[in-house]
């Protein structure tokens, strides 16, 4: 009984853990990056100067404290 | 040229309008010319908190539509000469705002005031976006509670992408106010600590406001709590106002209740 009481996680720390996960996933969604379409178009323009481009895909990736934009450029072989 | 500060929250009911009123008055009491503008079109409230509801003749929308001049619409506070107020329209809805009109008004206010404080509507829709669009800085008000913090993070995300300053490559300054902190609950582990909130939201703290029953009493009377020198929330607003005016004011730890501290000290001599 007493043991249970000591082991019970305080609700503030539960809140902190739940929030951390919820906010990470909120931020992860690309809807948070309204400039995404413009950025894609610009990247295509730059790469196009040198080589043919078929598609560009940009994702936001979060790992621990690090946030990164993963950019995949699919080349057009014919170009 | 004055500085434009948007007061935002994401979630409603966290004390955004109360904060706007108190900080506006606090800044004015620091000797700066300050105007507070209610951008919550259709849900006018700032006038009540400031006790100025009977003096509203013209509102924000009428000024934007050219039906009244800024000068005609501004209401001077009786408490402090440095504080002026511009009311929201009660009859219209948020869709009447547009970027050009907002920019023109904000520009005009910046020319005659040191601080222009915009009380944003709750939510993250167009009314909110118009409030942050031309702001130099934003004050984000949260309660130490999960839904408030999550919604604030969404609002900050939009601020970071839609503000004019960010579009120009600059940064919009962001300051957090944690409102309604209950020291006892923080101490017993039932309320999020401010360090945790800052960690999660990753922004700077400008002040913590302890829970204070006097806040409702103050809004009942239309006399902002900052005027009550004995109130712990009023004192907190006073400290934040000082910081916003460039004064160095130490951060008081409102998460330790005085009684708790007393008990601890008393306990040492047992």
Blueprint of the fold:
The complex is a heterodimer of chains A (79) and B (270).
Chain A: H1 2-7, H2 11-28, H3 36-48, E1 53-63, E2 66-75
Antiparallel strand pairs in A: 1-2
Chain B: E1 3-8, H1 16-29, E2 34-38, H2 46-50, H3 60-64, H4 70-73, E3 75-76, E4 83-86, H5 99-112, E5 115-119, H6 126-133, E6 137-142, H7 146-162, H8 164-167, E7 173-181, H9 183-187, H10 194-201, E8 204-210, H11 214-221, H12 232-244, H13 258-268
Parallel strand pairs in B: 1-5, 1-6, 2-4, 2-5, 6-7, 7-8
Antiparallel strand pairs in B: 3-4
Helix pairs in contact in B: 1-12
Describe this structure in words.
With 79 residues, chain A is an alpha+beta fold. Chain A contains 3 helices and 2 strands, in the order H-H-H-E-E. A two-stranded antiparallel ribbon of chain A has the order 1-2. Chain B has 270 residues and is α/β, with parallel strands linked by helices. Chain B has a single domain (3-268), classed as Rossmann fold (3-Layer(aba) Sandwich). Chain B has 13 helices and 8 strands. Chain B has an 8-stranded mixed sheet with strand order 3-4-2-5-1-6-7-8, sandwiched between helices. The model of chain B has no long low-confidence stretch (mean pLDDT 92).
Low-pLDDT ranges of chain A: none
Q: Roughly what fraction of the amino acids of chain B lie in strands?
A: 15-25%
Mean pLDDT across the residues of chain A is: 78
Secondary-structure element series of chain A: HHHEE
Q: Which sequence of strands runs across the widest sheet of chain B?
A: 3-4-2-5-1-6-7-8
Given the structure, what is the number of helices of chain B? Answer: 13
Helix content of chain B: 40-55%
Q: What gyration radius of chain A follows from the Cα positions, in whole Å? A: 21 Å
Secondary-structure-based class of chain B equals alpha/beta
Residue-averaged pLDDT of chain B, rounded?
92
The domain count of chain B comes to 1
CATH homologous superfamily caption of chain B: P-loop containing nucleotide triphosphate hydrolases
User: Percent of residues of chain A in beta strands?
Assistant: 25-35%
CATH architecture of chain B: 3-Layer(aba) Sandwich
Specify the biggest β-sheet of chain B: 8 strands, mixed
Total helical elements of chain A: 3
> Looking at CATH, which topology of chain B would you report?
Rossmann fold
Tell me which protein chains meet in the greatest interface and how many residues each side has.
A-B, 17 and 19 residues
Structural class of chain A: alpha+beta
**Strand order in space, largest sheet of chain A:** 1-2
Radius of gyration of chain B: 18 Å
């Amino acid at each position: 009984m007493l043991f249970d009481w000591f082991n019970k996680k305080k609700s503030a720390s539960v809140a902190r853990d739940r929030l951390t996960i919820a906010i990470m996933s909120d931020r992860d969604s690309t809807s948070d990056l309204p400039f995404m379409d413009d950025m894609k178009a610009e990247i295509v323009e730059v790469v196009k100067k040198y080589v043919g481009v078929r598609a560009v895909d940009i994702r936001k990736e979060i790992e621990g404290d690090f946030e990164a934009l993963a950019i995949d450029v699919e080349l057009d072989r014919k170009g | 040229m004055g500085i434009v500060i948007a007061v935002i929250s994401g979630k409603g009911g966290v004390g955004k309008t109360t904060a706007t009123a108190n900080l506006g008055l606090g800044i004015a009491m620091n000797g700066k010319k300050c105007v507070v503008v209610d951008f919550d079109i259709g849900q006018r409230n700032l006038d009540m908190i400031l006790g100025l509801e009977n003096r509203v003749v013209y509102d924000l929308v009428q000024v934007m539509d050219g039906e009244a001049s800024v000068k005609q619409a501004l209401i001077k506070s009786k408490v402090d000469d440095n504080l002026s107020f511009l009311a929201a329209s009660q009859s219209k809805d948020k869709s009447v705002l547009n970027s050009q009109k907002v920019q023109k008004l904000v520009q005009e206010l910046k020319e005659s005031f040191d601080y222009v404080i915009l009380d944003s509507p709750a939510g993250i829709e167009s009314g909110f976006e118009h409030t942050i669009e031309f702001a130099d800085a934003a004050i984000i008000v949260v309660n130490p509670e999960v839904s408030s913090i999550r919604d604030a993070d969404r609002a900050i995300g939009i601020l970071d992408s839609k503000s004019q300053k960010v579009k120009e490559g600059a940064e919009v300054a962001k300051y957090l106010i944690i409102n309604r902190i209950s020291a006892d609950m923080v101490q017993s582990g039932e309320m999020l600590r401010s360090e945790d909130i800052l960690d999660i939201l990753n922004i700077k703290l400008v002040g913590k406001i302890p829970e204070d029953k006097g806040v409702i009493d103050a809004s009942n009377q239309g006399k902002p709590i900052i005027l009550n020198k004995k109130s712990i929330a009023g004192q907190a607003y006073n400290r934040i106002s000082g910081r916003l005016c460039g004064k160095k004011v130490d951060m008081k730890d409102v998460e330790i209740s005085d009684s708790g501290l007393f008990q601890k000290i008393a306990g040492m001599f047992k």
